[in-house]
Structure formats: C-alpha cells, structure tokens
Write a structure and sequence with these properties.
By secondary structure, the protein is an alpha+beta fold. The chain has a single domain, classed as Homing endonucleases (Endonuclease I-creI). The chain is about 45% helix and about 20% strand. It is built from 5 helices and 4 strands. The protein has a 4-stranded antiparallel beta sheet with strand order 1-2-4-3. α3 packs across α4. The longest helix is centred in the last third of the chain and has 20 residues. The mean pLDDT is about 90.
Length: about 140
C-alpha cells in the first residue's frame, strides 16, 4: 500500500511536467471582475488523471482526438479545491512551485464584500501568475 506522501510526490511530478496553475478573470455583469484560481493537467494517461480526481475531486474530460495523435485527457479543479490541491502539491513541486504557491495562498473574502485591499492583492497575484506561466520565473520579494 502506497503512503499518501509517495502518491503526492508522484502526482507532483505530473503537475510539474503537464500541469497548469492559473488564475482566470471573469467580468459577467459586475462592476469589478472576480478571479478564479484553477489547477489543470492534460495527459494521454487517463489513469493518472483519475488519481487526481479521486484525491482532489474535479472531473476528467476527454478532448476531441486529433488524427494521428494519442487521445488527450484533461483534469481540472477550481476555486477552493484548486487551493487545496496546490497546498498538497507545493512541498513536492520543483518547476511550478511559485505558480502553485499563488494558488495555495489565493486571498478570499469569505461571504462578505471584497475590500479594496483584497481586490488589489488579487490583481497583483493574477498578474504574477500570468508572468510565471509565460516565463517560468518571477523576481519578487517574499510575501
């Protein structure tokens, strides 16, 4: 029987190679946009993605096959489950550790209104996330 620590190390390897830790911005009929942190992974091995789904929730999706290529599957979680997933994987990540830390530490307002300070922090982290996903590195001071 595998220990949870071993499983998380294994899954973190997949997340480092084929995963995406990102933040989407939404604007639908609101004065201020809102942000949705997410974790997603695409791979041709559906068994590994099923492991992510069993451990962290979410769903495995089948993408339309491209002629001459293997079938690709995608798994994704967002919002609270993305923060939980990132927190579990951060200790074992190497290449995408900073992206996952942003998702893990994503500031939320709970059920109350979002303050200007919280909104400012979310905008800053949203931009940091996009820089990291484009370049793989970010020079910044400790949070």
């Amino acid at each position: 029987m595998l220990r949870l620590d071993s499983i998380l190390r294994y899954l973190a390897g997949f997340a480092d190679a084929d995963g995406c830790f990102s933040v989407a911005i939404r604007h639908k009929d609101r004065a201020q946009p809102w942000f949705v942190p997410s974790v997603s992974i695409g791979n041709t091995n559906v068994t590994v993605l099923d492991m992510f789904a069993r451990l962290f929730g979410g769903k495995v999706y089948v993408t339309k096959p491209v002629m001459g290529r293997k079938q690709v599957y995608h798994w994704q979680v967002s919002a609270r489950m993305a923060r939980i997933t990132a927190a579990a994987l951060v200790p074992y990540l190497v290449m995408k550790k900073q992206q996952a830390e942003i998702i893990r530490d994503w500031p939320v307002s709970g059920n109350g209104p979002r303050s200007d300070a919280l909104f400012g922090a979310q905008i800053r982290l949203y931009h940091e996330s996009h820089i990291l996903n484009k370049t793989g590195r970010l020079t910044r001071t400790a949070r």
